[in-house]
Design a protein that fits this description.
Elements lengths: L9 E4 L5 H12 L3 E6 L3 H13 L4 E5 L5 H15 L4 E4 L14 H29 L2 E6 L12 H21 L4 E8 L12 H8 L10 H12 L10 E4 L6
Parallel strand pairs: 1-2, 1-4, 2-3, 4-5, 5-6, 6-7
Helix pairs in contact: 1-7, 3-4, 4-5
Length: 250
C-alpha cells in the first residue's frame, strides 16, 4: 500500500501500547492516518510508541481509558470527536488471557477476560457507531482469535470471549450495513506476542509443527490482514472473520 493510503482518516486502536495493537497503530500512522492510540496501564510503552511515531512525522495521540468502563469510553470518544470531528476506522484490539482449568477458574478470572475482551467491544463500538452512522461510512475491525474455533484446555473464558466477538461482528454488520459501514474481524492463530511469553521455546517449536505453514505467525502477518479490511479494497466485505493462522484451523 502507498505510504499515504489512509491519509485524512482518523483511526482509533484500542490496546495499542503493545503487541498486535501497537503494530496496527504503527502501520496505520505510517500510512497517513491520524491514530488515536488507546491504552490503560502501559503508560511507559505508550509514551515510547508516541515518541517513536512523532519522530517519523506521524500523527498519533494517546488516550488513556479502561475500555471495559462505559463512561471512560464515552469520554474518550467525545474527546477524539471534539478534536478531529470524525472517526473513520475502529480497531477493537484490547484483550488479555487469564488461563485456568474450568473447574478451578475463579469468578474474577472469568469476568476480567469477558470484560476486557468482549464487553469492551460493546462499549467502544456502540459509541463509535454513533459517530460513524451520521458520516455514512466507517470500518470496524474486531480482533478475535483462532481460539474461538479451536478451543484449548484452560481457555474457556478466552474462547468464549473471542467467540462472542465473532458473533457480535456478524450481528453488528447486519445493523449498520445500510449506513455504509463494514464490520469484520480477524482471528489470529499462534502469533509471536507477549501473550505467548509464558510458553518455553520447546513448547513453541512443538506447536509450530502443527501449523501447516510451519511457523508461529508474526505481528506483521496480522497487521496486513487488518490493513486490508480497513481499506476501501474491502468495501464489499462485511460480517466476515479472516483467519490468520498459518492453516492451524484447517
Amino acid at each position: 500500500m502507498a505510504e499515504d493510503y489512509f491519509k485524512g482518516k482518523v483511526a482509533l486502536v484500542t490496546g495499542a501500547s503493545r503487541g498486535i495493537g501497537r503494530g496496527i497503530a504503527e502501520a496505520l500512522s505510517l500510512r497517513g492516518a491520524l491514530v488515536a492510540a488507546n491504552y490503560y496501564k502501559s503508560e511507559k510503552e505508550m509514551t515510547l510508541l508516541v515518541d517513536s511515531l512523532h519522530s517519523r512525522g506521524c500523527a498519533v495521540e494517546a488516550y488513556r481509558a479502561n475500555v471495559a468502563d462505559g463512561k471512560e469510553v464515552e469520554a474518550m470518544i467525545d474527546e477524539i470527536v471534539r478534536r478531529h470531528g470524525r472517526i473513520d476506522i475502529l480497531i477493537n484490539n484490547a484483550g488479555l488471557r487469564r488461563d485456568a482449568l474450568l473447574c478451578l477458574m475463579s469468578d474474577e478470572e472469568w469476568e476480567m477476560v469477558m470484560d476486557t475482551n468482549l464487553k469492551s467491544i460493546f462499549y467502544v463500538t456502540k459509541w463509535v457507531l454513533r459517530v460513524m452512522i451520521p458520516q455514512r461510512t466507517g470500518k470496524v475491525i474486531n480482533v478475535s482469535s483462532l481460539s474461538a474455533f479451536k478451543g484449548l484446555p484452560g481457555q474457556t473464558n478466552y474462547a468464549a470471549s473471542k467467540g462472542g466477538a465473532i458473533s457480535f461482528t456478524r450481528a453488528a454488520a447486519h445493523e449498520v450495513s445500510r449506513f455504509g459501514i463494514q464490520v469484520n474481524a480477524v482471528a489470529p492463530g499462534l502469533i509471536g506476542t507477549d501473550l505467548l511469553s509464558d510458553l518455553d521455546k520447546e513448547t513453541l517449536v512443538g506447536l509450530s509443527r502443527d501449523i501447516p505453514l510451519g511457523r508461529v505467525g508474526s505481528i506483521t502477518d496480522v497487521v496486513n490482514g487488518v490493513l486490508f479490511l480497513a481499506s476501501d479494497r474491502a468495501d464489499y466485505i462485511t460480517g466476515q472473520t479472516l483467519l490468520i493462522d498459518g492453516g492451524l484451523g484447517i
